[in-house]
Design brief:
There is one protein chain. The chain is of the alpha/beta class. 34% of the residues lie in helices and 23% in strands. It is built from 14 helices and 16 strands. The chain has a nine-stranded mixed sheet, with helices on both faces. A five-stranded parallel sheet has the order 3-2-1-4-5, with helices on both faces. Strand 4, helix 5 and strand 5 form a beta-alpha-beta unit. The chain is elongated. The two termini are 17 Å apart.
């Protein structure tokens, strides 16, 4: 049997530019900024791959938005073994995981981010197997599939092959208040045993070593030199983008997306809606770096740069900036995009010109794991 747990509010803070979704106040503010949860949709997308391969499959789950709704939406039949409180809490996730394990679920899928992974790990025995459907804002843990369709493909393969090889992976998380102050210090909260198939599960986020900072500055200098008058540049989060801002003589929101036009910040810490409004005012381009170790360009920690924003930008929507070593550390694995829109991801796939220095670029492959996950499903 496979099971499903959905964190109904996972990821709501991402498009709102709030660097997380933990806490009722953050969730309220995200709603006020026009954001909406997407975990249920991404869970249903994963299960749709299972349904295509095994249309009569039952899925053990929690009631309502914590899983049952997504199972029905995917065309499968739910077996409800846990009824959450209203509103749901992290304790409901832990109790749901425990309930799924108690009835013999062999593979637990969960939709959320690192916080959800912590709560699931707290409820499962050490021998249980689980896999994350990425739907949160921060996903540093290597317990997630690279996208919902990849998670569904792994689950379908698990059922067809009566199991897959598994590996013990770390469950990491950061304090969101520290994160908003640009203190990114992931802590280990446990482990989960995860089904493994090359290219389907993401790697752990890797920090930039101190001795690489000079290379980061050179890459940032190259990006700053490429900025043109009259264009709105949407500077994504992270250390490399902070260096780009320094090259321009600007203060950067550490983990937000700032809009820069003609050498000044016109919108700091922008939400998805604010980015859309800026893009409508004139030519624009997003500027992003690479998540070390994972290779993600979009869909991890920068959900403000959504599929809608990319579409609104139009031609040449993204400039990629990174030191050469980040590409080398990927050991041939491609860069990844996961905006939640398969059409936009397909448009971004192919090859990216990565700015690595004042006069250097690297051409590197970009894959859309959602499209590949669906194509290669059993």
């Amino acid at each position: 049997m496979i099971g499903l747990i959905v964190n109904p509010v996972a990821g709501i803070g991402g498009p709102a530019g709030l660097a997380g979704s933990d806490g009722a106040d953050v969730q309220r503010r995200a709603g006020e900024r026009g954001a909406r949860p997407r975990a249920g949709e991404r869970a249903a997308a994963a299960l749709a791959v299972v349904a295509a391969a095994r249309p009569d499959e039952h899925v053990v789950t929690a009631a309502g938005a914590m899983g049952e709704d997504a199972v029905w939406a995917a065309g499968l039949r739910p077996i409800v073994v846990w009824h959450p409180h209203a509103p749901t809490s992290p304790g409901d996730t832990t109790d749901a995981a425990r309930a799924l394990a108690d009835v013999g679920v062999e593979l637990v899928l969960f939709a959320g981010g690192d916080g959800t992974a912590r709560d699931v790990a707290a409820g499962l025995p050490a021998t249980a197997v689980a896999l994350g459907i990425p739907a949160g804002v921060k996903m540093y843990s290597p317990v997630f599939a690279v996208g919902p369709s990849a998670a569904g493909a792994l689950a379908a393969a698990w059922l067809d092959e009566r199991g897959l090889p598994t590996a013990e992976r770390e469950v990491l998380d950061v304090d969101e208040e520290q994160l908003r102050r640009a203190r990114v210090e992931p802590r280990l909260f446990g482990t989960l045993r995860v089904p493994y198939r090359a290219g389907r599960t993401q790697a752990r986020k890797a920090a930039t070593p101190a001795d690489e900072q000079a290379a980061v500055r050179l890459a940032a200098r190259g990006a700053a030199a490429r900025l043109r008058p009259g264009i709105r540049y949407l500077l994504g989060p992270g250390g490399t983008m902070a260096e780009v801002a320094r090259e321009l003589g600007l203060e950067k929101t550490p983990l937000g997306v700032d809009v820069v036009l003609d050498g000044r910040v016109v919108t700091a810490g922008a939400s998805e809606q604010e980015l859309l409004e800026e893009v409508r005012r004139g030519p624009a381009q997003a500027v992003v770096s690479i998540i070390g170790g994972q290779g993600f360009l979009l869909g991890r920690g920068n959900q403000q740069l959504s599929a809608r924003v990319v579409e609104a930008i139009g031609e040449d929507p993204v400039m990629v900036v990174a030191p050469e070593q980040k590409l080398i550390d990927l050991a041939g694995r491609p860069l990844l995009v996961d905006t939640g829109d398969a059409g936009v991801d397909a448009r971004l796939a192919g090859f990216a010109h990565v700015v690595t220095g004042p006069s250097t670029t690297s051409i590197y492959p970009v894959h859309a794991p959602e499209n590949e996950g669906a194509l290669h499903a059993p």
